[in-house]
């Protein structure tokens, strides 16, 4: 069964919720219509449990709303955790991109002896090599005037 207050799944024989501590009433809850026509009486929901606890419609509605709120708070926390993880992954990707942009150059196999940064308009990607900048310069490649200023 589920706790009416927090919505967590709990053992059927529980007296209290192990998650939120609220008291669990057992047995069926049924509407009591016998006293509705008496003057001054209010509609109530009576529990047929051993405790004979009586729930008003307002108490029942509040308990259900509290359970919904609790479930929504857990869902919100899960979404916030997922968003935090996505942001951490994004920061890792940004750090990698900065590293590559700073240290890696592309040498096209076009015989011009120039190296380029990714995105250069003059870069031919049909056939190329990837070098770090120092190795490209050690092999007599020069920086492209357009992208390696």
Describe the protein:
- The chain is an alpha+beta fold and 149 residues long.
- Helices cover 36% and strands 16% of the residues.
- It contains two helices and seven strands; from the N terminus they run βββαβββαβ.
- Strands 1-2-3 form a three-stranded antiparallel beta sheet. It has a two-stranded antiparallel ribbon with strand order 4-6.
- The model is unreliable at 27-50 (pLDDT under 50).
Strand order of the largest sheet: 1-2-3
Number of helices: 2
The SS-based structural class is alpha+beta
Radius of gyration: 34 Å
How many β-strands, per DSSP?
A: 7
Low-confidence stretches: 27-50
- What value does the average pLDDT take? 81
Give the N-to-C terminal Cα separation. 68 Å
Coarse morphology: rod-shaped
What's the helical proportion of residues? 25-40%
Q: What string gives the helices and strands in order? A: EEEHEEEHE
Biggest sheet features: 3 strands, antiparallel
Percent in strands? 15-25%
